[in-house]
Structures are given as structure tokens and as C-alpha cells.
Design brief:
Helix content is about 15%, strand content about 40%. The protein is an alpha+beta fold. The strands form four sheets. It has an 18-stranded antiparallel barrel, surrounded by four helices. Strands 1, 2, 3, 4 and 5 form a five-stranded antiparallel β-sheet that branches. A hairpin with a 3-residue loop joins β9 and β10.
Length: about 725
């Protein structure tokens, strides 16, 4: 242990004033790196003497004192496990004095760990009383500064040399680096992580009641949730343990209970799984054999406590019910590809009657503190407590996004920036799809333990004048409407909204949304049916453990959106992406009533959904090519009327959709399910046209699916 000791002598006999004594203390502390050679021992009649140095010559007392003290420290100082585990290297500096009574007195300890400072004080209290230093034959105080090297170094050993030897040994030990890697047992780390929970309505319903108890100070509108925020209220691990199968073989555990591959080290973990979405069915009314063949690989994990990641690659081919295929082809992109699969992506032709549609989604999640979560990804977001959202839904294809969640006090503030595409032939330039951008704010505020309100603001802008991503919209706390005015009335499309949720009790809560897409109050509230009255609202009710039956989840919801909502007079600035609505699946110009029931017991589950709607479509005929406000991609300059516009105007259509699904969860860790589904759909317009005509669909389907996102067939 090559420890440098510095000293400063002062005498009680000099009767130094208190202020001078404090100055000397400060001087010694600030300038403590002084070698013994700078203050010679000739100043002392005698250096402090340990009993081990009693027979030592006076000239050697300094060396004996130094070595004895160092040896005592080396033998008695215990470095805490925390310091070892964090691989700390540095010094603990101790300013102490030997009193004229020969006692060691610690004046100050400097170190980054409290454990090291406390240990230094403890060891010095163990030091024996020594023979004090003398000056002119009288006992004297003497001060020293002792740097204790961590890790401890034996007396007489060079610190520099020790470090070099240590580094050399570390390099030599690297030949065993591969063998030293540990694969620790995986203990469902995902449930405590900051990665997103895959957005699935049925899976979210399993813990929705736990998040909506009276008195909780959480926020439920901003989706997808991250595991750690939900795990605080709902024990994922305990819930899954209830349905685990007793399997001991590797194949049995991986099939029924566990992830396929798990890797866990000291400060990282990841899982790797293969998945499928295999379907076989029949559209009886159109006499079409339907199928879907999706193979996927997904991984998730964390590096340290702050960084998490999730990624999925899908390779898919499929053919669906007739109404689904026709809609997919009606929203086909420019460039020759035959369709866009709703909610998924652009499809190319496969065989003569099917589609091939690869998808890749994922995100990186960074949580620097309990107040912030930052995400960069390619996927979807959802704002609201309902089955539908009038703000932002997961209805459209995945898109690049950057999101910041800020949570503190009674607030949760979500900022999201997105890059979207308009893929229609009329806006394509030089063979490239038109890029547009969206930014939105959503502020959730728990006013009371029962009442929550949310304030929403969103703006879209295009890459006009080569401005690209407008940095004006990067400010997370500014009103977008003000920026829209500053960039030109046609330079952006801003929307605002308000939402609310009220917890009647732990089993019932009510929710709603109101969206405004036009800021002319005289038109919105004038009662003349102005085309600028672009509003919509949602009312909903949830009932948990309905009628006393545990895990029975009931939901009813009414949505109403006026004509022309989400469209814009600058046609690129509609509220859409990849020819799909970024809000409600049905677009605009409709009213809709939904009833949903969900139930799960053990691994068996069932869902039932009933939808009745009245919708208004464009005629798109030579006789009537006016825009009636149903298609959000319509041009408002082609509107049928300035005033007198009413809900479901145009080709008014009665729409009925019922969907029943029952299944079995094969593996809860991967959300692998086997199921059967039945869909009955009735679509009855007033007038049959080339694009809108009366149809009826009876679609039966069976499949096995890794449930990682919502599939919507109810349009």
C-alpha cells in the first residue's frame, strides 16, 4: 500500500485563536498533497510513536509511524460489497490529527460512497493510543492527510505498479471472457420493463379493470402502455402463473408456457420467438376460400434498466372475404401494386388471386427517469379509452414515430411526431409517394380520483416549398393552431379535441371524446349545417365483472362524426395515411353503435361484437360526382353544398356487422392462440353504384395466431 501521508503541526502552547485554527484546517484540507520531504522531521523532537516503534531510532520514527498506520488500515479496512460490485477505483481521503494525548481524531473524510466514509471512521476509532509528537519537549497536536486507495494496496507496494499488474492480469484473463459469460435464469423481466405491451383489445381488457379502480392516479388513454406502468396495478406474472401447465420437458415448456429463446445476463435480457398467423376459412356468400399465411419472428429485451427494444418481422400471403378484398383493392397505391391490406401495408400480387404483404414494426424505448419515457419506432399509437378513437387510432398501416411521455403529479403529457404517406396517383410525384407529417399533443389530467379529462391537439403539414419536417412543430408545449396560421392557412391542418372519463365505481366507468376539425365557431354552432361544422363525438360505457361474473367485460359505445371531418381543402392534408383514416375506421359522415362482450377463464376466451351504423357515401357517377363528406380523401372544393349538410348524406347506407370469436391460449408468454371466428356483415345502400352496392357476407374462419396487434374487419 503506497499511501502518501501529509502533515501540519500546531501547538496548544501558542494559544492560537479560533479563527486561525479554522484557517489552518481549511489550508490543510485544500492543500493536502504534500510529501514528507517537504516538512522535515528535524522540526520534531519526536514523531508520534506506536508501541511497535518504541525501540526505533528517532530518524526512523517517521517511516515506522507511516508503515504501522498503513498496515493497520490494510488489515482492518473492509470494502463494502456495493463498492466491489460497481468496480470502483479511487481514493478515500482522511484528514485526521494525533492529539497531544496520543489519540487519533478524524476531522474530515472525503469519498464518493457513504459506505467508504463510514468505514474509514470506524477503522480510525480502532487505532490504539500512541505516544504523541513533541515540540521543544512538550506534547503537540499534529495533523495528517491519508489517501486510502480503493481497491486496497498493501504497504510498500507501488500503486502505479499495482495498476499496471492489474491491467496486465485483466488482459490475460480476457482469454476466458467467452466462458465467463453467464446465462442467468429468465424471470419474466418483460413485465417490469419499459417496452410497449402489444396493442390487442382482448389482451388489454384483461387488465383494464385493474387500471380503472377509483382512487388510482394513473392514465389510461395513451396507448400502447409500457409493461412497467401496468405491472404496478396488475401482476402479470401472478396472472400467468395461474394458467401455467405443469410441463418439465423442454418442448412442453416452450410450447405451453415460455418464450422460445431467453438470454439474460447481469444487466441485460432478451427473448426471441417464432410466431404465425395461419387462417383458413370461407366466404359463403361470395364462394371464396380464404386464407392467411403469416410467419413472423419477434424479439424484445432491455439493455440496462433504461433502454428497451421490441421488433417484429412479418412475411405474409393471404386472400380474404370478398368485401375485404374489394376494399383493399379500392385503396391500392400508385405504382401498380394491387392493394393495401387494411391496418397492415402495401401488398403485391401473389399467384392470381392473393396478396403478398411483408411488414416490419418495432421500437426503442428509453426511460431516463420515472418522469420520462422516450420512444422511437415504426408502428401505431392510440389515444382514447374506447374501442374506436376519434383522435388517433391503430386503424391505419404502421408509420415511423417519435414519442415522449411525461408523467408527474396528476398529469401525463404525450407528444408524438409521425411521418405519413399519401400514396394516391393524383399526388404522386416522379414515382414517389407524397410525404406529410403529423404532430400531436395529448394532456391527461386527473381532476379528482374519479374524473379525468384529456386535451388533444394535432396538426398535419406537407413538404411544400421543400420545407420538409417543419421545426416549428418540434416545440412540445406550443399551440399548433398558432403555427398553422404563421405558415399559411393552407400550410397545415389542425384539429383539437377534448376527452373525459368518469369512474362511477370500481366496476363501471363512462368515457367520451369530442373532436373539432374547423375553428369557425359561427359555422360549428350556427345550426345551418355548414360544411365547416366538422365535428364528432363519442360516448361509451364499460362494465367489469358484469353481473358478478368474474372476467366478464362489457362495453357499449356510440360514435358520430359529421360530413367533411378529417378532410381538407388542400387535398394532401387529410387526416389519413396509406389511404386509410388515422382516426375512426369508417372515416366520416356516419353514426355508429357498438356493443362488445369479452370473457376469459383460464386459457379459454370468447369475444362478441355487434355494430349498427348509418353511413354516407359518394355516388361517384357521371350524374353525381359531388363530394358528400364521407371519404376523408375527398376534395372539399367539390362539396355538394355550403350549408344544409346532414349526417349520412349522399348514398345513405345501413351497415350491420357482427363478429364472434372463441379460442384457447396455447402460450400466454407469446400470446399464441388457436381460435374460430364467425362474421356476418350486411351492407345496404340506398342506390347501388359501381363502387357502393348491396352485399351480404357470411365468413367463417379458423386459425392459430400470435396476437401482437389488432386486426379490424368491421368496416
Amino acid at each position: 500500500m503506497n499511501l502518501v501521508i501529509t502533515k501540519k503541526l500546531y501547538l496548544s502552547a501558542l494559544n492560537i485563536q479560533t479563527t486561525m485554527k479554522q484557517f489552518i484546517f481549511l489550508f490543510v484540507f485544500c492543500f493536502s498533497v504534500v510529501s514528507f520531504a517537504q516538512v522535515t522531521s528535524a522540526q520534531y523532537e519526536k514523531y508520534p510513536v506506536f508501541k511497535e516503534c518504541a525501540n526505533t531510532d528517532v530518524d526512523a520514527l517517521e517511516s515506522c509511524f507511516k508503515n504501522t498506520l498503513q498496515q493497520f488500515i490494510f488489515e482492518n479496512f473492509k470494502v463494502s460489497e456495493k463498492v466491489f460490485s460497481e468496480n470502483y477505483k479511487g481514493n478515500v481521503n482522511v484528514l485526521f490529527e494525533v492529539t497531544k494525548d496520543g489519540k487519533f481524531k478524524v476531522l474530515y473524510v472525503d469519498g464518493i460512497y457513504d459506505e467508504l466514509k463510514e468505514e474509514a471512521r470506524r477503522v480510525f476509532e480502532l487505532l490504539p493510543t500512541v505516544e504523541p509528537a513533541t515540540y521543544n519537549g512538550s506534547p503537540a497536536y499534529v495533523q495528517f492527510t491519508l489517501p486510502i486507495a480503493i481497491p486496497l494496496v498493501a504497504p510498500g507496494e507501488s500503486i502505479v505498479q499495482t495498476e499496471e499488474i492489474s491491467k496486465k492480469n485483466e488482459r490475460e484473463a480476457l482469454v476466458n471472457e467467452y466462458d465467463a459469460l453467464e446465462n442467468l435464469p429468465y424471470n419474466n423481466e418483460e413485465y417490469k420493463s419499459n417496452i410497449n405491451i402489444p396493442l390487442s383489445h382482448h389482451n388489454y381488457s384483461l387488465f383494464d379493470s385493474a387500471l380503472n379502480r377509483v382512487g388510482l392516479n394513473n392514465h389510461t388513454a395513451q396507448k400502447p402502455y409500457v409493461y412497467s406502468e401496468v405491472n404496478k396495478y396488475y401482476d402479470f406474472e401472478a396472472a400467468n402463473k395461474e394458467i401455467l401447465k405443469s410441463k418439465t420437458s423442454w418442448f412442453g415448456r416452450k410450447l405451453w408456457n415460455e418464450h422460445l429463446v431467453t438470454i439474460k445476463g447481469k444487466d441485460y435480457w432478451l427473448t426471441l420467438d417464432a410466431g404465425v398467423d395461419l387462417q383458413a376459412g370461407k366466404d359463403f356468400d361470395a364462394n371464396i376460400d380464404t386464407y392467411n399465411n403469416t410467419r413472423l419472428v419477434y424479439t424484445q429485451g432491455s439493455i440496462g434498466k433504461q433502454i428497451g427494444f421490441f421488433g417484429v418481422i412479418y412475411e405474409s400471403q393471404g386472400r380474404f372475404a370478398d368485401y375485404f378484398n374489394r376494399y383493399a383493392e379500392s385503396i391500392r397505391p400508385d405504382g401498380g401494386n394491387p392493394a393495401i391490406i387494411p391496418g397492415r401495408g402495401i401488398a403485391k400480387e401473389f399467384k392470381s388471386d392473393s396478396y403478398d404483404y411483408p411488414i416490419a414494426t418495432g421500437h426503442i424505448s428509453y426511460t431516463p427517469s420515472k418522469y420520462f419515457n422516450i420512444q422511437l419506432g415504426h408502428g401505431k399509437t392510440f389515444l382514447g379509452d374506447g374501442y374506436r378513437s376519434l383522435f388517433t387510432s391503430d386503424n391505419a398501416s404502421p408509420y415511423p414515430f417519435f414519442k415522449i411521455n411525461t408523467t408527474f403529479w396528476k398529469l401525463k403529457y404525450t407528444n408524438t411526431w409521425m411521418s405519413l404517406r399519401d400514396v394516391r396517383p393524383e399526388v404522386t410525384e416522379d414515382g414517389s409517394f407524397r410525404t406529410k407529417y403529423m404532430a400531436n399533443h395529448y394532456l391527461s389530467y386527473n381532476i379528482t380520483k374519479r374524473l379525468n379529462i384529456g386535451l388533444f391537439e394535432s396538426v398535419l403539414w406537407q413538404n411544400d416549398n421543400n420545407r420538409g419536417f417543419d421545426v416549428n412543430y418540434l416545440n412540445p408545449i406550443i399551440f399548433y393552431r398558432a403555427i398553422e396560421f404563421s405558415t399559411g392557412s393552407r400550410g397545415g391542418n389542425a384539429l383539437i379535441g377534448i376527452s373525459a372519463k368518469y369512474k362511477v365505481n370500481d366496476r363501471i366507468n363512462a368515457y367520451g371524446q369530442f373532436i373539432i376539425d374547423e375553428f369557425s365557431t359561427s359555422d360549428v354552432f350556427g345550426g345551418k349545417g355548414s360544411y365547416k361544422n366538422k365535428t364528432g363525438y363519442q360516448l361509451g360505457l364499460k362494465y367489469y365483472d358484469a353481473f358478478g361474473l368474474k372476467n366478464l367485460y362489457l362495453q357499449t359505445e356510440y360514435n358520430r362524426v359529421r360530413p367533411y371531418t378529417y378532410s381538407h381543402n388542400t387535398v394532401v392534408l387529410n387526416y389519413g395515411h396509406n389511404n386509410q383514416s388515422m382516426a375512426h375506421t369508417l372515416g366520416a359522415n356516419f353514426s355508429e353503435f357498438i356493443t362488445i362482450a369479452r370473457y376469459q377463464r383460464g386459457r379459454i376466451y370468447g369475444d362478441a361484437k355487434f355494430i349498427i351504423a348509418k353511413r354516407g357515401f359518394e355516388f361517384n357517377t357521371a350524374e353525381d360526382s359531388f363530394f358528400y363528406g364521407g371519404n376523408i380523401y375527398g376534395n372539399e372544393d367539390d362539396r355538394v353544398s355550403d350549408n344544409g349538410n346532414d349526417l349520412a348524406q349522399g348514398n345513405t347506407t345501413n351497415f350491420f356487422h357482427t363478429e364472434v370469436q372463441a379460442g384457447y391460449v396455447i402460450n400466454p408468454a407469446t400470446n399464441l392462440k388457436i381460435y374460430g371466428s364467425f362474421i356476418f356483415r350486411s351492407f345496404d345502400p340506398e342506390i347501388d353504384t359501381e363502387t357502393v352496392f348491396k352485399t351480404q357476407t357470411t365468413w367463417v374462419n379458423f386459425g392459430i395466431r400470435t396476437d401482437l396487434f389488432n386486426c379490424y374487419y368491421d368496416f
